[in-house]
Each structure stands twice: as C-alpha cells, then as structure tokens.
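Reopening this one. Same input as before:
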Amino acid sequence: MIDLYTWTTPNGRKVSILLEELGVPYNAHAVNIGAGEQHEPEFLKVSPNNRIPAIVDQDTGMTLMESGAIMLYLAQKYDRFICKGDEYWRMVEWLMWQMGGLGPMLGQVHHFVKYNKGTSEYAEERYSKEAHRLYRVLNTRLEGRDFIAGDGKGEYTIADMACWPWVSRFEWQEMDLNAYPNVRDWYVRIAERPAVQKGYQVPKFVNEIPMP
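Same output, byte for byte:
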C-alpha cells in the first residue's frame, strides 16, 4: 500500500496519475499548501523539504519526496511505464528535462503571468519566451512520435506523465496548443486515458481537464 501526500498541482498530479495507471492500491492524503499544511511537523517527517508530493511505501517502509524520484521508484518497483536498455536513459533524460526546465519555468509563468500580471513586464516576457522555447523543444521531440521516449513512435512512460500535467495548465500560460500541433495531439492522446482523468482529480476535484 502506498500513502500519497499530495495537492492539486502539476507535481502532485504526476504521481497520482502514475498510481492510477499502475492500478495499485494507495491512500491519498490532501496537503493543502494554500493553508500551509506542508509545514506541519508530521508532514516534514515524510518530506523534509516542505513540498508535495511525497510517499510512504507501507510494504517496504520507504519514504520519498521529489516527484521525479517517486516516479522512478514506483515505475521500477512495479516494472511498468519504464523503458528498457539504452532507451531507459532517454526516458530519464526527458524526465530530468521536465524536472529542471519545463516545470520550474512554467511555474514562473504561472507566478508572473497568471497571479501577478503587471508586476514585472521583464519577468513576464522572460519566462513566457522560455515557455515557448520549451514547447518548441517538446514539439520537435514529438515529431512523428506518439510519446516522448521509447523506440519508433515511442511508448507511454513516466516521462510523459511528468510533462503532461504541466502542459495541462496551458491556459494559465496563455499558450495556444494549436501553435504546437505535435504537443497538442500528444496532450489530447494522454488526456483521453481513463487513469489520467481519474488521477487528475486527486486529492479532490478542481476542474475538468482543459482541452484545446
């Protein structure tokens, strides 16, 4: 049994989508970051960095924070949604791309463009330009491919699950997915998966999955 500590953010949804795709039993514990619950002492025992998501694997006693590490752990434990051979490292490459680029940069767009528009024209322009650059990178990668990693047209892996929730906030980023048709088609392809639709609503319903 996996205990998942999470909230309705892209990083949280990465792990709940993976757990739903795996079809393994888990308990979702809501950590309301807007109310500061991530600073509670009990949560800090699981996630010393005050961030969601985090897990406790009741089967092994393993506790993990950081969404990328959690996804690698779960994919390896259940041996699913993970590439084999040399393609393993291609999958890790794109997972790290999300962790180090797509997520942090789109997070800055959310901060300056959605929540604090007009505060800093420089920041809005800087992070919006970087968001478009990253979308172009992903659009190029998806040319002729269904998924980010894997041979041929690719296979659905944790690299896709890591990137997809960040793209799901394209409206927050004032991004027109039609300008990036490969990203748009990939996004819709994943959005139509039942496990993604269920995992998106963990730990609570906020809105339907946005569609382009």
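So the earlier flakiness isn't reproducible anymore. For the record, The beta strands are 2-6, 26-30, 54-57, 63-65.
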